[in-house]
Amino acid sequence: MKKFLFVTVASLLCAFTAKAAELSVKPIVGLDYVYSRAEYKGDNKKALQKNFNSPALVIGTQINKFFSVEGLYQQTFNESKSHAGLKTKSKYRVLGLDAIGHLPLGCSQKFELLGLVGTGNYRYSAKNAVEKGSDDGWYGRIGGGLQYNVTSDVAVRAMVKNSWVDVKGLDSVLDATLGVRYSF
Predict the structure, then answer these.
(1) pLDDT in tens, 1-13
(2) What is the pLDDT of residues 81-101, one digit of tens each?
(3) What fold does the segment set 2-183 form as a domain?
């Protein structure tokens, strides 16, 4: 965990120390597949689904080769779990904003280490035959990953992100993402 935090902080520090003359602002659009594992708090955690699959739409700006900002919209599919004879369906959606530090590797700089800090809003809902409920709240998260630049405009990336969520019953969410980015 210490190495992970070090890489995240180092990537972001590189982004902030880049020279102003190196600014080359480029819009970014992207699409991610997200596998999520939710951790719950409280009495109902055995009845709720832990694993979610979802797409995430990303729009952002590459400020320079060391720093980008991305906004995202993620909506999980309805996932069901049966517990004690009761089937519960749950889902969530995320609106978020991430600051991403890029650390180019090697001479060709095709690969980049990524470090991420972000915030946003979770809206979680669950329902079964007896009750239904939803709640929304803010989250903070950190993450890291690796990006491969196929061309100067197309990149493929894999990331892991951990979110601490302020939503009733939901404690944290760990995301593993695989996605593509296009900058123009």
Answers:
(1) 566 555 555 555 5
(2) 888 888 888 899 999 999 999
(3) Porin (2.40.160)
By the 8 A CB rule, do 121 and 159 touch?
A: no
* HEC string for the chain: CHHHHHHHHHHHHHHHCCCHHHCCCEEEEEEEEEEEEEEECCCCCCCCCCEEEEEEEEEEEEEECCEEEEEEEEECCCEEEEECCEEEEEEEEEEEEEEEEEEEECCCCCEEEEEEEEEEEEEEEEECCCCEEEEEEEEEEEEEEEEEECCCCEEEEEEEEEEEEEECCEEEEEEEEEEEEEEC
Q: Where are the domains of the chain?
A: 2-183
**Gap between the Cα atoms of 138 and 166, Å rounded:** 5
Query: What's the predicted TM-score (pTM) here?
Result: 0.83
Give φ, ψ of 158 to 5 degrees: -130, 135
